[in-house]
Amino acid sequence: MAANDKKDYYGILGVKKSASADEIRKAFRKLARKYHPDVNPGDKSAEEKFKTMSEANDVLSDPKKRKIYDQLGYYSDNIDPAAAEAYAQAGGGSRGGGFPGGFPGSQGGGTQGVPFDFGGFDFSDLGGRSSSGGSGSFRDIFSGIFGGRGGAGVAEEGPEPGSDLEYQVNVPFWTAIRGGVMRLNIARRDTCGNCHGKGHIESPGKCPQCGGSGQITQTGGRMKFNVTCPRCHGTGKNISTCPVCHGEGTVERTEPLEVRIKAGTRDGQRIRIPGKGNAGAHGGAPGDLYVIIRMGEHPVFRRDGDNIYLTVPVTATEAALGAKVEVPTIDGRAELKIPPGTQSGQKLRLREKGVPSATKDGARGDEIVEIKVTVPMPRDEKTKELLRELAKLNPEDPREELFKNV
Prior knowledge:
The longest helix has 17 residues, at 44-60. The chain is 24% helix and 26% strand. The protein is an alpha+beta fold. Helix 2 packs antiparallel against helix 3 (44-60) and helix 4 packs parallel to helix 5. The protein has a four-stranded mixed beta sheet with strand order 11-12-16-15. The chain has a three-stranded antiparallel beta sheet with strand order 1-5-6, covered by helices on one side.
């Protein structure tokens, strides 16, 4: 597309700058039906409007072209998208600022000329020399201009928070029930004590590369540019990379840590320990440590939430006649009433004999007891005779209902 004066393509199509591609397409079709030359034969004004509308639609309907237009306020096929991106980040484009007179290659402050197009040139022989003896490519020089806003120095990196850490901890059954303290060794990134997180060490004197100015001069052909000094990053100070953390500002460190396990802590529960994650960069706050509980098993008790489950064997006589039996709980022994006629597999509840809640003060789960009726093995003739007598007194067939439903 040829270079043209700056035009408000959004205004031409009558849409907002935030309009979607579908909204732009619909707006163009609506206007095209009104101003198309076939609808307005011989009308030069309508013809010009249709050309302008088509130009606007051509740019705004193409995501890449639209991005360049939004960054610079105009579009040309000669503009390198990377250069437009850098120019926009440097404060230029439709927001103003940047190079006096607009994007490099534009003519005047308000109209668009033909921008520089470096796509067909090889700058490898220019060699880009710097006043400090360094060298770089032509692209490096332009990167310094756009990134450093004409050699005015770069902004210091802001604080970055450290990342969070997650550790899974196997907690014994009784520790999760009653609470306790777990001692862990946590491997984490900690602030370097040698450079205090800066990543570099400052020595007396000025930067030997830029002489304390914070800038160096690079040349490409007959062009000279002031760019930020790569050694001191524009500070002008005599700094060198920290030999301990090698410039990262943090070091790997194993730290002993005590984690308090609250009574009633559940399997899979996450315990947050603020500030014990990885250290932040450039003075940023450290992340948090999340300890994920994995509770151990018990040979008798099974836990589900705050309830405790177990299976208790009872004799056939106790199940038939009813009884009071002792059963284990997490607090010791407790008495359980077995109703007469209790069947094997039946569940009985002991209220508030479960686990104390870790989230609700005073709340507690229950203990659910599953009954398992044990049948005695007759060891002598007298026992067998008594069982036969019992069968005569209770002649009902327990399988009668089963066959009725077949």
